[in-house]
Amino acid sequence: MRLLVRLVLLAASLGCGRSSSAPATSPGTDAGASSEDASMTLDAGADGPSCFTNPQTYLEIINACTDAEAIDKTDDLSPMSLADGGLQPLP
Amino acid sequence: MMIPRVLSPGAALAAVLVAPAAFAQNAPLCSSLPGTIVYLESGDTQENLLKVVGRQLRDDANITLAFELTGSCGITSDMYTDASLIGGTILDYIPSTAENPSWDPTQVEATCTVDPSGASIAVGIAALFVETCGLGEPPAGSNLSLVKGPVQAYTFVVPTASDEQAIWAEEAYYAFGFGDANKLSPWSNQELMFIRPPSKSTLVATAANILVPPNKWHGVPENASADVVTAVAASPSPQPTIGILGAEVYDADRSAGIKTLAFRAYQQRLAYYPDSTSTAFDKQNVRDGHYTLWSPTVYITPVDASGIPVNAAVAYLEDLVLGVEGETPPEGGTPIDGLADVVEVGLIPDCAMRVTRTADGGPLSLYSPSAPCGCFFQSQIPGAVAGATPVGCTACSTDTTCGGGKCRHGFCEGS
Question: Does A62 touch chain B (CB under 8 A)?
Fold first, then answer.
């Protein structure tokens, strides 16, 4: 199967899953730094926060810890992406 | 030849003199229907709400909604230019129980004909921010008000037989922005990508979230949401097939051979459904910000100096969908639980939201509604046990049992 699809039940007590690639484009937001009030839940061996327990900013809100069903999948955007991972301009 | 359905004031005289072919149909004059007639234009994503509320307004409040389903951007433009419905235009309305006892919201609406002299549009219901249509505040002197109504979520859907479960914003960008030139599978055949015209909120709002301008989309434009459902479900090639819908349209068609995809926004780590699971109806992820494909509906209507809609029936309609408690029909009748109607059809009352935004595709921020209704929302979603109290909520009849909180719609809320 082309995609490895992994269902991740995210519970704050269990920590959160991780996305399979770094986002390449911002919708032009306040998504920069995490707020000082937001707590982070870390995966063992992770290089950054996987979810936020007290989200304040946009980036924290969309990546907040939740008990909702979440879906992670590995995918390769490189056939379309720019060398730096950014979005190729529309034709 | 396309028959214009609205005209700006300067062209109204000519419109009266040119009777559209629609006159040939046998629909009764809308003005002959009983009660107060509210002429409105609405995005077709709001059809289910209009059906449910329309039936109750006809039965309990002596109000008839006579409406045309069309594109949100066109609606906004019509309201901003004070356009009128042309005489002879065929509108939908919901029959009363007395008129058609067997009618229910799964059936098509009845139709009526706009009087030869035309009709003013009392309210326009767009399903996205007006700014996304390239419009700003209402024209000076128009006395138009923009009121944010229930939240409308949008979804990507695929055939039930598809193996796909999620779509990234990046994947959607390449699929719909490049069409056949997309090198990522499976969505690289634009003949199997069923979209909406660029004036429809479903496409325009989704476009804002995936950063593909409406006029750059590749795919097969379907004029109605129902056509997207049919095309996706009937596709002989499930894997590369995809479509876009309003979430409440999907909710009403979950057994029609389609399924929703979880969506991962730019800068998000995981993909989420609009609901907490693929089978739930709770819109949890829309309400708390994990699912970003949504827009507010916007009710556009003339108001008086106090900001109250000049049409009392429109004011009542707005109060219903906003969940204002204690409102009674302007001409008497039985109070209607409009908030329950909103939830029933898959929309999300503003009072049940915990995040907000100021532009389509824009950032989300935390939100505390002035009169929250989260517990009531949970009590009304499809599958909720009638009369049961949702987990974490407290039923009430007065504020005294709410420990300093407010009793709203039968449940203690935070404020």
Answer: yes
Of B171, B264, B285, the CB nearest to A68: B285
Mean pLDDT, residues B129-146 taken together = 90
Peptide bond into B372 cis (omega under 30): no
Nearest to B93 by CA among B34, B43, B10, B6: B34
C-alpha–C-alpha distance, residues B337 and B240, integer Å: 42
Phi first, then psi: give them for residue B284, nearest 5 degrees: -60, -40
- In angstroms, the CA B303 to CA B353 distance is 26
User: Which of A37, A47, A56, A58 is most worth mutating to test chain B (most B CB atoms within 10 A of its CB)?
Assistant: A58
d(CA A67, CA B270) in angstroms, rounded, equals 13
The pLDDT assigned to B293 comes to 98
**What are the helix and strand counts (H, E) for chain B?**
11, 21
Give the whole-angstrom CA distance, residue B166 versus residue B269. 12
Q: Please check whether residue A12 touches B, CB under 8 A.
A: no
- Chains A & B: contacts with CB separation below 8 Å: 142
**What's chain B's average pLDDT?**
91
Q: Which helix (H) or strand (E) holds B92?
A: strand B90-93
Distance in Å, alpha carbon of A44 to nearest chain B alpha carbon: 16
Cα–Cα nearest to A17, from A56, A74, A58, A57: A74
The C-alpha atoms of residue B130 and residue A1 are separated, in whole angstroms, by 43
How many other C-beta atoms can be found within 10 angstroms of the C-beta atom of residue A21? 17
Angle between helices B47-60 and B312-322 (to 10 degrees): 120
pLDDT of B337 reads 87
Cβ-contact B340, B387 below 8 angstroms: no
String of b and e for A35-52 (b: at least 16 CB within 10 Å)?
A: eeebebbeeeeeeebbbb
CB contact under 8 A, B177 and A91: yes
What is the predicted pLDDT for the residue at B414? Answer: 76
Distance linking the first and last C-alpha atoms of chain A = 30
pLDDT, mean of residues B71-86: 92
Q: Model-level pTM?
A: 0.84
pLDDT digits (tens, 9 = 90+) for B173-210: 999 999 999 999 999 999 999 999 998 899 999 999 99
Judged by CB atoms closer than 8 Å, whether chains meet at B164 and A3 is answered as yes
Give CA–CA dist B127/B124, Å, rounded. 10
